[in-house]
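Colleagues,

For the teaching module next term, I've prepared a clean inverse folding example: a structure given as tokens, and then the sequence designed for it. I'd like students to try predicting residues themselves before seeing the answer, so please don't circulate the second half yet.
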């Protein structure tokens, strides 16, 4: 349950104690603000689970960055801003991941032998991200625009002032890099699993 909002003087004194490493002071801060921060973030993300995760991250951030608390004028406003930024970043990350999953599910079959478990899908997406990081810069940029933003070949060509033919060639090259990387890594995982079970 939230306690009454502190005066500016009380807030400064509490932040000073947290800055000096007093964990009980952090607990006191959480008792006063945790529910408020949670409800604020919940309105942004519309998920209790995500709101709880972000709220905890906010207080972890306060503790980890306690040496800089003296620079904060209003801890309440700062926590709301921090929570909002974390919520926005998390939603962007989840949106991008959902776009990647939809792209691969619709246009590419990366699975071997039919249905795969969600954990295995996560492994495959990690392999894909690693492969993308190894692509030449222009090839990588075009692939990401296609995958994450869903741009058409024409839109990508306009953005980079390229011909449609060049865009298609770069995408073809990126798909070849992905296939080669994923096949190689998958074979290594299969081999490792086989040897581990012998």
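(Answer key — instructors only)
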């Amino acid at each position: 349950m939230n306690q009454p909002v502190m005066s500016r003087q009380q807030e400064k004194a509490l932040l000073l104690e947290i800055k000096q490493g007093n964990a009980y002071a952090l607990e006191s801060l959480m008792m006063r603000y945790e529910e408020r921060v949670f409800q604020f973030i919940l309105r942004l993300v519309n998920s209790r689970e995500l709101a709880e995760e972000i709220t905890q991250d906010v207080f972890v951030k306060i503790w980890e960055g306690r040496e800089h608390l003296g620079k904060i004028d209003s801890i309440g406003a700062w926590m709301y801003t921090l929570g909002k930024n974390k919520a926005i970043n998390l939603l962007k990350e989840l949106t991008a991941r959902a776009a990647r999953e939809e792209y691969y599910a619709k246009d590419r079959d990366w699975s071997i032998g039919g249905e795969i478990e969600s954990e295995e899908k996560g492994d495959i997406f990690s392999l894909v991200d690693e492969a993308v990081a190894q692509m030449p810069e222009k090839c990588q940029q075009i692939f990401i625009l296609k995958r994450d933003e869903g741009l058409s070949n024409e839109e990508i060509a306009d953005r980079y002032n390229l011909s449609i033919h060049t865009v298609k060639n770069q995408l073809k090259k990126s798909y070849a890099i992905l296939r080669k990387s994923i096949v190689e890594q998958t074979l290594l995982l299969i081999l490792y699993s086989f040897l581990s079970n012998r």
